[in-house]
Amino acid sequence: MASEPLVRFYDLSGPKPWSPACWRTRYALNFKHIPYECVKLPYPAVKPKCRELLSPTIEDRDATVPIIEILQEPYVVLNDSTPIAELLSERFPEKDGYPEIKLVKEVEKYEEETIFRQRAIFRWICYDVWKNALDDKDGSREYFKTTREVNLGSLETITERRGGGDAAVYEDHKVQWLGLKERMAKEDGTGEPSYIDFFDASLFRYVEAANAEKGVRLMNLYEDDTFTKLMNKVKPYEGGPGGI
Ligand SMILES: N[C@@H](CCC(=O)N[C@@H](CS)C(=O)NCC(=O)O)C(=O)O
């Protein structure tokens, strides 16, 4: 029998798990073998759920998923994937049998250093997220389109307008993932994943869930085993409630 959940994890709805920030929390929960349940929220429900659980006055920009509730005493609720990983380390420590995730603190700097990569991804797949990754019956697609198009204009033409077209954005990816390529060149793809590996893998899963063909192209970005090694490392931690 499965153990009683110790954590409730809020992810976004959609045919497949796709939100990169939520992927990071799923990887962390699975890596630490913490029993949890997963609640999938429609996009328009994210801000109301944050106001209900976190604070009625939370700023719009901070009202995001993932959110976790720790169900055992003392009860805690928190959102934002890196603080969540830190909290999980604190509440489920190695001395109690929960494996420690390496390089959690280092991810903040890594995220800053790779900000252009995240921009390249967004420009490449924003329209695909709307078209393929979101639930088409629970209001998520309408919400995403309306909230993004206010600032970005038509989602359909973002790659063209802001990324310089598909070929240009793909060339940009070749530059933006070089750090991963160098890291994986020193590994055989069988070692223990760090939180930085989970961060990179979450972005790969994001692209793949938005557009399977772009997922294949990213996998083959360097025509080598960079992404195969990365995804082999994280594979054991992708199942569980709401996973794949
Ligand atoms: N820095 C945050 C980012 C979280 C984030 O941007 N989540 C998106 C989904 S991927 C969200 O909840 N957006 C809510 C909205 O746009 O209303 C983290 O790492 O958790």
From TrEMBL:
<protein>
    <recommendedName>
        <fullName>GST N-terminal domain-containing protein</fullName>
    </recommendedName>
</protein>
<dbReference type="InterPro" id="IPR004045">
    <property type="entry name" value="Glutathione_S-Trfase_N"/>
</dbReference>
<dbReference type="InterPro" id="IPR036249">
    <property type="entry name" value="Thioredoxin-like_sf"/>
</dbReference>
<dbReference type="Pfam" id="PF13417">
    <property type="entry name" value="GST_N_3"/>
</dbReference>
<feature type="domain" description="GST N-terminal">
    <location>
        <begin position="17"/>
        <end position="95"/>
    </location>
</feature>
